[in-house]
Each structure stands twice: as structure tokens, then as C-alpha cells.
Design brief:
The termini are far apart. Helix content is 19%, strand content 26%. The relative contact order is 0.18. The strands form 2 sheets. A 5-stranded antiparallel β-sheet has the order 2-3-8-7-6, with no helix packed on it. Strands 1-9-4-5 form a 4-stranded antiparallel β-sheet. It is α+β, with helices and mostly antiparallel strands. The longest helix is centred in the N-terminal third of the chain and has 20 residues. The chain has a domain of 125 residues. Strand 6 and strand 7 form a beta hairpin.
Length: 216
């Protein structure tokens, strides 16, 4: 019995040896299909900003444009009227509150600065004062009647650089209120007075003809 086992074992070994000897490596098989793409990885951190590059060179200046042509000359204006350097006129409005009542003299008064009254005007010329509403002007002194028996008179006097205006009331009463009054003062130098011997200096139109409206 023991002999049989050995023979069987030997036979098995021969079969194993034969089997191993017959296992030769076959040819390489085809590549398998491509696998699916993996998920995208997270972006990397932003790198530092690079240094600023050098500035470019300046461009060349453009050429100057040509000059435009000159315009034509305008026409000459008309000559104005000659003024009278020896006659100065001006307007002044006196408010009712500007007057001061003098109880001793029984009159109202107000002073007006008028630099055109120079030493020549005082010594050789004259000063005229007119009062009015802008349309009608009357020379002073001027008496105005406010009743059959009552009246008041506008008067004036002048000195170097100044005119004093007065209102004298006939019955020495006082006004309840005083309204604004407009006056036109005309200072006439000695040369202008001499050059106009026939002028009626109390006539507003004649006086304005001498003034030539240059100061009004």
C-alpha cells in the first residue's frame, strides 16, 4: 500500500512539471479605454505684482498753426458834443428828514457838498440852483403859495465847495411833514460867465444850453 502512494506522488510531480513547462507568456493585449478626467484642482495663490517698467519717451511737439488774417478796421464813431469845462452841474435829492428846523431863524435848512464850487466860481463866476419835478425846473429863489395868505420860499447861498438850501415860511409856522425835493445845482466858472454875457442865468433852458447837458 505504501508503494502505491509513492507512485501516485511521483506521477503528480511529473504532471506539475509538465504543466509548468507548457505555460509560455502570450502576446501583449490591447490598451484599455481611457479613464474619466479627474476634478480640477483649486487655483494657486496670486503672485506678487511685478516692478513698473520704465516710462516711454515724450513725443515730439506738433508744428504751430498759421496766423489768422487781420480783421477789417471798424468805422469811426461820431464826435460827441463839446462839454464846458467851466460849467459843472449836478442833481441832488433832499429827503424830508434831511431838513433841520432853526427855531431862531424860523426856517428849514440843509447843507450840500458840491466840490465843483471852486475859488474861481466863488470869486469870478456864479452858482444857480433850480428845483423841480424832473420835467419843469424853476430857478431859486422860488416862492410857493399854499394858501391865499401863506407861502414858503426856497432860497440858497453858496461858498467854497458847498451850497446851503433854505425854506422860509411866511407866517413862521412849521410843516407837519416835509416831502423829498430834487435840486439841480449849476456852478459857472469866471471864463464861462464872461463868454456868455447874454445868457439869462435864471432861465433853465438857456443855462442848460451853456452846460450842453454834459454833466446831467
Amino acid at each position: 500500500m505504501k508503494k502505491t502512494i509513492v507512485q501516485i506522488t511521483a506521477a503528480l510531480m511529473i504532471m506539475v512539471t509538465v504543466g509548468m513547462a507548457s505555460c509560455v507568456k502570450g502576446p501583449k493585449g490591447d490598451a484599455g479605454p481611457t479613464g474619466t478626467t479627474g476634478t480640477t484642482g483649486t487655483p494657486g495663490a496670486v503672485g506678487d505684482t511685478g516692478a513698473t517698467g520704465p516710462g516711454g519717451t515724450n513725443g515730439t511737439n506738433g508744428t504751430n498753426g498759421i496766423n489768422g488774417t487781420n480783421g477789417t478796421n471798424g468805422t469811426n464813431g461820431k464826435d460827441g458834443k463839446d462839454g464846458n469845462a467851466n460849467v459843472k452841474a449836478g442833481l441832488v435829492t433832499i429827503a424830508g428828514s434831511d431838513w433841520t428846523y432853526n427855531s431862531t431863524a424860523k426856517e428849514y435848512s440843509v447843507g450840500v457838498n458840491f466840490p465843483a464850487i471852486t475859488k474861481d466860481v466863488v470869486d469870478n463866476g456864479m452858482v444857480m440852483v433850480f428845483t423841480g419835478d424832473g420835467t419843469i425846473w424853476q430857478a431859486m429863489p422860488l416862492t410857493v403859495y399854499y394858501s391865499s395868505t401863506g407861502s414858503y420860499t426856497y432860497q440858497y447861498q453858496y461858498m467854497l465847495g458847498e451850497v446851503d438850501l433854505f425854506i422860509d415860511i411866511s407866517d413862521y409856522s412849521t410843516f407837519t411833514t416835509l416831502v423829498s425835493n430834487t435840486f439841480k445845482i449849476v456852478a459857472v466858472g469866471g471864463a464861462a460867465k464872461k463868454a456868455n454875457p447874454n445868457t439869462n442865468w435864471k432861465d433853465y433852458k438857456q443855462v442848460m444850453a451853456v452846460v450842453n447837458n454834459s454833466a446831467l
